[in-house]
TrEMBL record:
CDD domains: GST_C_8, GST_N_GTT1_like
Family annotation (Gene3D superfamilies): 1.20.1050.10, Glutaredoxin
Taxonomic placement: unclassified sequences, metagenomes, ecological metagenomes
Native source species: marine sediment metagenome
Name of this protein: GST N-terminal domain-containing protein
UniProt KW keywords: Transferase
GO molecular function, one term: transferase activity
Domain GST N-terminal: 1-80
Signal peptide: none
Domain GST C-terminal: from-to ranges: 85-204
InterPro entries noted in UniProt: Glutathione-S-Trfase_C-like (IPR010987), Glutathione-S-Trfase_C_sf (IPR036282), Glutathione_S-Trfase (IPR040079), Glutathione_S-Trfase_N (IPR004045), Thioredoxin-like_sf (IPR036249)
Length: 204
């Protein structure tokens, strides 16, 4: 049985969404980060920094959303969420790397210095820099995205899971998005698997 350790409105939603898209059976277990459950010895044995998501699949334990989702699509599906040809798979990996390292990074920095870090570690002066970095990464994305249905080819892939989730973070943080990307996000968040993933995390 696959087990997902999660916390609502975090990166674990990407994994729950992937699991739902693939139609896999899994348990969803809440790690109440606000109550310190991430720092228990039990959870630190799963994730060395006490965060989520963590996936257990038999003998395997994985943390970090990108490799978890990549593993699920590679080993529990046949061409679903991950193309079968090497060139297209490389393009999905390209976008996963860009989304996590360039597009998401300034959003997470903004979140850290607004509420996630201890009060005495927050630097309000960095917030305009975060906004500038995000808009710069968004401009780079726009040079490759021109309103097409999906980022890679004709099928919905992991790249779309990660981009839709990251754009949703941006919307919640009041960042400006171009109309094409607003429409892209709205289209993909309507997928039934996304709704099921949100419901599973809330129920946990």
């Amino acid at each position: 049985m696959i087990t997902l350790y999660s916390f609502p409105q975090s990166r674990s939603l990407r994994v729950a969404w992937t699991l739902e898209e693939l139609g896999l059976e899994y348990q969803c277990k809440l790690v109440a980060l606000g109550k310190g459950e991430g720092q228990t010895a039990e959870h630190l044995a799963r994730h060395p920094d006490g965060k989520v998501p963590v996936l257990e699949d038999g003998e395997l334990t994985l943390f970090e959303s990108a490799p978890i989702c990549r593993y699920l699509a590679e080993n529990h599906a046949n061409g679903t969420l991950l193309p079968t040809d090497a060139a297209s798979r490389a393009q999905v990996d390209q976008w996963l790397s860009f989304i996590v390292t360039e597009l998401e990074q300034p959003l997470w920095n903004q979140a850290k210095h607004k509420f996630a870090l201890p009060q005495d570690k927050r630097v309000p002066a960095i917030l305009p820099v975060c906004a500038w970095e995000f808009q710069r990464a968004l401009s780079a994305l726009e040079r490759r995205y021109h309103g097409q249905e999906n980022l890679v080819g004709d099928s919905f892939t992991l790249a779309d899971v990660f981009l839709t989730h990251t754009l949703s973070w941006a919307v919640s943080m009041k960042h400006r998005l171009p109309e094409t990307l607003l429409a892209y996000r709205e289209r993909h968040i309507q997928r039934p698997a996304m709704a099921r993933a949100i419901a599973r995390e809330k129920a946990a």
